[in-house]
Amino acid sequence: MAAPVDDLGMQARLRPNAPAIDDLTSDRRWTYAEFDYAVARCAGALVARGVSVGDRVAALSKNCAELIMLHLACARLGAIYVPFNWRLAAEEVKWLIEDSDPSLVFIDDKLENADFDGVSIDALRHEIEVSASYEGGAIDRNLPSLILYTSGTSGKPKGAMLSERNLAETAINFSILGAVNEQSVFLCDSPMFHVIGLVTNVRPPLMRGGAVLISDGFIPVRTLARLGDPALKVTHYFGVPQMASVLRADPTYDPNKLKGLTALFTGGAPHPAANIRAWLADGIPVVDGFGMSEAGTVFGMPLDPELIDRHAGSVGVATPRIEARIVDAAGADVAMGEPGELLLKGDNVTQGYWRREKETQDAFTDDGWFRTGDIARMNEEGFYWLVDRRKDMFISGGENVYPAEIEAIVAGVAGIKEAAAVGVPDEKWGEVGHLFWVAHEQATTDESVITAELERHLARYKLPKHYTRVDALPRNGAGKILKTVLREMAAKENVSP
């Protein structure tokens, strides 16, 4: 019986000796033929441990090649791979184990929160080396092969179930938007418990015959050195907007060394237009986009610097493989340019949430559109802007206020490193804004400068009533700002009742 053929297996036949994976964390590298064989032996090791169709196989580990092997091996077996956020506290990890109920858990035993029974990554590495390869039948592309837990900015995280069909759509969509080909080289700093790290950094290059460089984390000076290394030839790099800002602020930043990049790709949070244009001024295209655990890559900006400049702040356009609508609270399509909730439909969209029947039902309209929970608008040219998360919007004096609109303006104020706004209760207006902001070192910017800039651009009802300077904004493992924590901080300052 022929071995299952996925994108990796196809490329192993088309270009067996081409570089596929370079694990910078351990100085190991594989060609396509070698990595295809390693995944087959990983699948064989899982079968020897009793893994079968529908079983969950979890991992708690920093980035390494074995995490990609586990995911692809699970897909070949019809099992489901479940990566855990290694930054979580031990109790949070134990809750994820209880929720996903895996038959196997692989752990990096050097992590402080790995205080539960599991198989070490080192042991798995040895088993892969000595196991017989799995030569099973065809892959069922409709079975879930991955559970990605949402970042959990509020409440308990939910596990989005993604099939090989879903994941292939992200590979296709990003390949189109990001010009991925056999010459592409992706440097993956993003953690492989996140959609950017495990899916967007891996599936497109493996589908198109490119290469993946695996890093164990974001260290600005090291990342810049790698992006500028002519031997590594990195073409694609992903990060959240805050990571992009940190790279530009690093003393070793030299835009002339980054001209080999197809683009610096950002997502996961609004990217202020002022910051995007600063990169463009240095000759580096910054391509913002929009994706999510439940749908992979959705929108992406063009690579053309002129178009990026003209539409700075936009998250780009959709490929023809994705349907999108923007609707009001009653579910009716809004007028062109008006904000509303973004709905999606396509083969990229999740099948639902693991063991969450009600949440799955609530996530879809009666006619099958997925509710993203994001407020968006679209212009006549088909470019989308994310206005804010629906849950982050607040109502002040009967008017909708979108914190992202405030944050985008503050990002352009000299001396401001980053900022975030939340709505807090107010006796007179119902809710008002509270802005938390971080200043660059040595900056003399104060609240009056911020207020003056906001007054130039925004209606008075949108202006924050409260301001707090902080050393850093709280973030989760995926780099997203934790606005629930900011609301708690505001409450402790006796801003809200």
Strand order, biggest sheet? Answer: 2-1-10-9-11-12-13-14-15
CATH architecture of the largest domain: 3-Layer(aba) Sandwich
Radius of gyration: 23 Å
CATH topology label of the largest domain: Rossmann fold
Q: Pairing-aware structural class of the strands and helices? A: alpha/beta
> In percent, how helical is the residue content?
25-40%
CATH homologous superfamily heading of the largest domain: ANL, N-terminal domain
> Could you give a short account of the major beta sheet?
9 strands, mixed
Number of helices: 16
Give the N-to-C terminal Cα separation: 68 Å
Question: What's the pLDDT, averaged over the residues?
Answer: 91
Which stretches are poorly predicted, pLDDT < 50 over at least 5 residues? none
**Overall morphology:** globular
Counting structural domains, the number is: 2
CATH class of the largest domain: Alpha Beta
Number of strands: 25
Strand content: 15-25%
Structural summary, described in words:
This protein is an alpha/beta fold and 497 residues long. It folds into two domains: 379 residues, Rossmann fold, CATH 3.40.50.12780; 101 residues, ANL, C-terminal domain (GMP Synthetase, Chain A, domain 3, 2-Layer Sandwich), CATH 3.30.300.30. The chain is 31% helix and 25% strand. The chain is built from 16 helices and 25 strands. The strands form six sheets. Strands 2-1-10-9-11-12-13-14-15 form a nine-stranded mixed beta sheet. A four-stranded parallel beta sheet has the order 4-3-5-6. Strands 16-17-19-20 form a four-stranded antiparallel beta sheet. Helix 2 packs across helix 3. The radius of gyration is 23 Å and the shape is globular. The mean pLDDT is 91.
